[in-house]
Amino acid sequence: MRILVIEDEKRLASFIQRGLKEQHYIVDNAYDGIDGLFQAETNQYDLIILDVLLPGKDGLDVCRQLRAKKNSTPVLMLTAKGGIEDRVSGLDAGADDYLAKPFDFKEFLARVRACLRRRQQDKATRLKAADLELDQLTHEVVRAGKEIKLTATEYALLEYLLLNAGQIVTRTMISEHVWHHDFDSFSNIINVYINYLRNKIDGGYPQKLIHSLRGTGYVLKG
Ligand code: CA
């Protein structure tokens, strides 16, 4: 879990950073709104801790600009002010939660965990491509409203292809991620499983989702 802390008060920033690192989170810091926005757009974070009063660009602007660009990383806003108006403008700007300073660090950590949990649930449940859906919690696979029964290996292979939808997935990547070891001399087994999967997922449907790239690997495209 990687967290970005955008906070200009250096003492508070290093206190938050230390506390989060003790909980085994990976933490990056930014000390103004412009650098914060840049880091948030450049790297992948699981959570952003965002102060409202910041030099350069305030926290509300940073949050609005992230949401305008479809960045859905959860944002936990911090502010010195605890008024209802500030709380409302923070949430309107797209923040997921709000904490007024000074805060109790235990409560802060509980909010961090809650934001990360919601994020996991949103992210982890359903993968989609065209009319194909895979539910990572129930392991149900549905195409055009019809349930498709897969073996454990077929499921793992499809999930991996869907997690990388639109990108080339090589045989090496598949053997490492689906079978957890590299067996290039037996790579025929991947072709065999891709064919099983293709029959179940694409058989009988005019739109094919699984495509082979000769000599390279596969791509799932919706
Ligand atoms: Ca501040």
Compact overview of the structure:
With 222 residues, this protein is an alpha/beta fold. The chain has eight helices and twelve strands. The model has no long low-confidence stretch (mean pLDDT 89).
Characterization of this structure:
The chain has 8 helices and 12 strands. 43% of the residues lie in helices and 22% in strands. By secondary structure, it is α/β, with parallel strands linked by helices. The radius of gyration is 22 Å and the shape is elongated. Helix 2 runs parallel beside helix 3 and helix 6 packs across helix 8. It starts with a strand and ends with a strand. Calcium ion (CA) binds next to loops.
What string gives the helices and strands in order? Answer: EHEHEHEHEHEEEEHEHHEE
Question: Strand-residue fraction?
Answer: 15-25%
Count the DSSP helices.
Answer: 8
CATH architecture of the largest domain: 3-Layer(aba) Sandwich
